[in-house]
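Handoff note, outgoing to incoming analyst
You'll be picking up this chain. Sequence as last confirmed:
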Amino acid sequence: MDKGVRYLPRDREHLPKMFPIHLNESARRERRTLMLLSILALFIAYTGAVPTSFSGGGFMFLIKDPPVIYWSLVACEVYFLLTFWLYSLEDFRLARRERVAENAEAMTVGTTRIASLLPLWCWSFARAATYFLWLSLEFLLPYVLGILATAFLLYRAANGTSGP
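Most recent structure output, in case you need it:
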């Protein structure tokens, strides 16, 4: 009796075929940095925790105008939003073409066991839901976090406020 396919740790070479990574190395680095910076910026903008001084290279820097921190974070957010968009655009187009080709191949009756067992509408709904989840996590989440953080920072910088 066939209980399906199990993937054991020794079968790691098959996992990239199941879960392909479509972002190149530079786009992944930009995505990671954008998400980390966005989370930090949201924390700073929401709590108003702005540093008043910091030291670097043996020098002590005092910050007398807290909105300067907000404006510098806005500049960083905009930079990383643009660079992630530039680096990931071609990867997104390539991944989308691959997904469309996969869907067309999987919709052919009898090509896969699961496609032959499920009704056509159920299979296409499952593929669409998986594609939307993948699209949301890989590409949309960094943009949403970055835009939200930029909006909060702009609000704080324009009002000059430092608390919630």
